[in-house]
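Exercise 7. Predict the joint structure of the components listed below.
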Amino acid sequence: MDELTAEIKPIRKISMIWLLPVLVAIIGSWVMFQYYSSQGPLVEISLTTAEGLEAGRTRVRALSVDIGVVEDIQLEENLEGVRVTARLSPDTQHLLDAQTQFWVVRPRISADGVSGLGTLLSGAYIELYPGKSGTFKRRFRGLDQAPNARPGVAGVRVQLQGGSAASLTAGAPVLYKGLKVGQVESVGLSDDFEESLVWAFVERPFDQLLNRSTRFWNASGIDISATANGVQINTQSLASLVAGGISFSTPENQAGLEPVEPGQRFRLYGTQREAEEQPYELAASYVLQFHRSIRGLSVGAPVEYRGIRIGTVEAILVGELAELTPTQHAVPVVIRIEPGRVGLPDSQESVARVRDMIEAAVREHGMRASLQSGSLLTGEQLVAVDYYDTGEVAVVGRYQQYDTLPTVDSGLERIEKQVSELLSKFNSLPLQETVAEGRQSLASLTATLDSLNALLGSEATGRVPQQLVQTLQSIEAAADTYGAGSDIEREVGRVLQQLDATLREYQALANTLEEQPSALILPVNRANDPQPKANP
Amino acid sequence: MVGCMTCHKLNDAACTNCSRCGRTLISRTHNALQRTYALTLVASILYIPANVLPITYTVYLGSSGPSTIFGGVVTLWQMGSIGIALVIVIASVFVPVAKLGIMFYLCEMVRQGNVRNPHQAARLYRLTEFIGRWSMIDVFVVAILVALVKLGNIISFYPGPAALSFAGVVIVTMIAAEQFDPRLLWDISKE
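Solution:
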């Protein structure tokens, strides 16, 4: 048996066991990394209410596809809302950026229809609409309700600012010739609370219908107007009757201007008539200073050139009355002359052109503005612009920030003036003296008559009738000598008989001469009288 | 004299194998300290995912959510079940941490060769060995819940990655305790 020899191996100072913690650490960190990278992003959404939401149950969906679940719902510190924490699926990071929108889908009943019925059974869920800007974000403000325009629908969003948004609600249709081409997204007040502010969305391809000169008006409810032609009732679709609606139109001669940009601001008019009366956006404004009453002139009255409407009365600067002085006492009226009304494009260039034209016309051809009576019945006034040969030279001036147009009196105003001139001339006549002279004349007339009276009353005058009678008697006696049975009368009778006989003889002679003119010289040859007899 | 590790027969120190069962006789476990140290470290590493990752996925009336050990404790505490919360804290936080702490303490004492009170140290070691198998409560609970409660969407439990990790912590700690050679304590204290 061999001697056992010990094989001596050096004891390793460091055991292989140390590989184990290293391995575990690697595996452990890999598992943790796996776990967290498969978790997907955690987002915080602020909402006004958590109605219908439940932690652990409520889903987050994008286009109805589940992409996450609500993990936690907390009240905000100031109790002004709730903060919902949701865990999204992995690989949804790219959906989250500044434009991402979240809103809660609940059953919703509106004039436009019923939506979100599916949530009656499944419960509310949070809808996500991804943004496109690309910067990752994890805190969001949730919308109170679904945006009315479906995400991803192309179109253009415009702001409408106007007086009253009565009976207009979010979701109401935007109509073009009575057809729905978009919808109202929100109805609110402008920043200064002065006017209503409506956001409307017009879907593609109808956004091409819009341009800078497009006019929007509130087409809500029923428009009843009674005119000389009868009663007219205008309504739009039934939905707009209930939920309100907005219509728009683009003036035909203004089509094809530059398209609108998203978020462009438009005026919202109360009625279609109002909108169409003011279809031009750009205008040259002028101030007219009237030195007479402008009673009957109202804002919105037409400005005409020889009966053709070229603009509108924009404002009467009542506020300026406070600054009037005895020497400066004209009432300033602002008018706008709209190039669009006379076939020019509704653009700044046209305005500049119109300004130049007016300036030249005022300086060289005597263009003036005047107040004219539009209707004698109602006393409405309008502003007329025309050329007047006044002989005065005037130019476009300045009044505060406006140019001024020189004014002139005309029409009725002139007649009025003439009448008043006539009256003042009449007034200056020497009536007093005339009347005094008349009185004197009358007095002398009376004296003349008196003397006449005295003359008539005298004795000599009394004898005149007697003499007159004597004269007549002698005239009568004279007449008797020529009367019937008198010698003269008989003599005359005899002469007349003789004349008669003579004339008869001359009758026979005249007859003979007529038949035979030669009888004067030749003997008369009379024919026998014809004898009546029968034919053999 | 060297005691056999398997049959506990005392052999002469010159023998290399046990005269009864034939096992290689070793006076002191080779590299015991390093092994214990390394395994304790492994257990500590495993303890991190055991607490961070969810131990179960609960489905309750259609809503599902992961829950970690500590999250569960907090929920129980908030719900008012302070007793149960304490049990879980003790079983799944206090005990493993204490075990790891004791192991590190013992190893460190041996490594520095400075055992002030070997009796106390030995008591701590025995305690660790004893508790070892009982600190699997969490894992047991998860195993039982997963196996028993399976009602689909109404209520169900699914094990999470932390359950495996936690089991790993317990097992590795037990092995570490096993690997520790308490004789080292006495070796040092005799000197």
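Discussion. Residues 1-30 of chain B form one domain.
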